[in-house]
Amino acid sequence: MSNSLSDISEKELAELSAVLCKNMGLVSDFFSGSRSEVFLPSKTEIIQIVELARTVLFPGFFGNDEISLKGFSFHVASCIDNMARKLKEQIKRGFCFGKKKHKMDCSDCEKCAGEITNKFISRLPSIQELLFLDAKAAYDGDPSATSIDECIYSYPGLLAITNYRIAHELYLMNVPIIPRIITEHAHSVTGIDIHPAAKIGKSFFIDHGTGVVIGETCIIGDKVRLYQGVTLGAKSIKTNDNGEIIKGLPRHPILEDDVVVYSGASVLGRITIGKGAVIGGNVWLTSDVGPGETKIR
User: Fold this and answer.
1) Which residue segment(s) compose the domain that 273 sits in?
2) For residue 272, which phi and psi values (nearest 5 degrees)?
3) DSSP labels for 27-73?
4) DSSP letter at 106?
5) Which residues of the chain have pLDDT under 70?
6) Within a 13 Å sphere around the CA of 183, how many CA atoms are in the beta-carbon half?
7) Which of 182, 248, 257, 286 is 20 to 30 A removed from 41 (C-alpha atoms)?
């Protein structure tokens, strides 16, 4: 008598499982290679790492809210240590996952993971400084905000920017897959999609936020403000002679300092929006805009 809870026989289950695993090997270098004791990065662990980072970057706002002032420094130090241990393991898995692309031997993965983790930890004060400026920009840019604390604690735009700032640091350190997991988690929670490779300056504010898209090769200056539904995207995708997409080409907009883009605007292609320009709601834009200009159609 079969122990299966379904009506599928054990033989059918075994055959179906074999086919699915074989098919996966056709599309995944990782799966078709020798997995041995190498495991994929854990999305659950990576999300926990981001939450620990949020606790460290905004002490008192996230994590355990019942820590006394006397024990607070110890609590933050403990979170940093916990985060570092978890991050090292996930970065190691990320390198093992991407070893063919990065031409690494798995014996080097742990060493590289340790070095990158230490470098990332040393960057926490700089990330925090940027995030404080982002929080102040949210407060200054939103008449309904009652305090900077409110922006830190509750604004989805700042959550997405926090994930982006963390992911961008790891991206700059050539960590595979993990930066994208971090920003896509924020995307799933907030509806704000920021590629970790995008370059974003200081005092960045996304108001309301749902539906905002910021592409891989975007360059955004200081004190830029975006509203909901804004797309900073590509106008077209170039392919090679074989019809394959050419990766990494600059194809997204450049927004200089103090630009404002209102809700629903689509700014597409490698164009430049000059300093202080204003882009109106629902505008479809595929050409440059000069400094200080207003574009409403």
Assistant:
1) 198-237+248-297
2) -115, 130
3) H-HHHHS--TT--PPPHHHHHHHHHHHHHHHSTTTSS-S---HHHHH
4) H
5) 1-6, 26-38, 65, 69, 98-107
6) 24
7) 248
The CATH number of the domain holding residue 209 is 2.160.10.10
Q: Where are the alpha helices (DSSP H) in 59-193?
A: 69-97, 99-102, 106-122, 124-141, 148-154, 156-172, 178-190
Same domain, yes or no: 54 and 187: yes
Burial of 46 (0-12, 13-18, 19+ CB in 10 A): buried
Structure tokens at 168: 């961008």
Separation between Cα atoms, residue 209 and residue 212, nearest integer Å = 6
**Cβ neighbours of 189 (radius 10 Å):** 13
Residues 6 or more apart in contact with residue 60 via CB below 8 angstroms: 72
For the chain, give the number of residues: 297
- HSE toward the beta carbon, residue 269, CA cutoff 13 A: 9
Please tell me the pTM assigned to this model.
0.89
Predicted confidence at residue 103, as pLDDT, reads 52
Looking at the structure of the chain, the number of domains it has is 2
Q: Residue 162 sits in a domain of what CATH number? A: 1.10.3130.10
| Statement to judge: residues 69 and 119 lie in one domain | yes
- Closest Cα partner for 127 from 89, 87, 170, 156? 170
pLDDT tens digits along 187-227: 999 999 999 999 999 999 999 999 999 999 999 999 999 99
